[in-house]
Amino acid sequence: MQKTTVAGHSLHSVLMAAPAVLIPFGFILDALHSATGDEDYAKASYLSMAGGIAGGLVASVAGAVDYAAEKPQGDTKHDGQLHAALTGAAMLAGAANLILRREGRHDSGGSLALSAIAAAGTLASSWFGMRMRDGQHAQVGMGAENAQQDVRIDHTALDVEQYV
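RE: above sequence
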């Protein structure tokens, strides 16, 4: 699969770090708000979720470009579809949560439930994304198995020449 890259790194992999961290962190902050009643946790959770949703939308564009370049069949294409579906569900739950919060209804249990659904969807989607990435290494072709083998150096001999 041809990937959109920046400085040799997959653009989608770089961009997906924001939602993969911010959305679950928003859930943690939301849980702290529920436990303590401290409004600062609710505000921080809102900002974390908003950043995660924004980052997820940008990462989705890069992911869609990579997905479109994928062959029509195969495990990677199937994992890509699951990855996209879970990401979409997590983004919808997160967006619904943000809408509830804008209307001032974050003290209900629904907000915490939507945060949990968004976090779980994001983590599951990340798992499929890693599975796709790891699957690409296995499909590179001849020599891929040798490229990942450890290089061993015999440290028992005090021969400096072997290190040069």
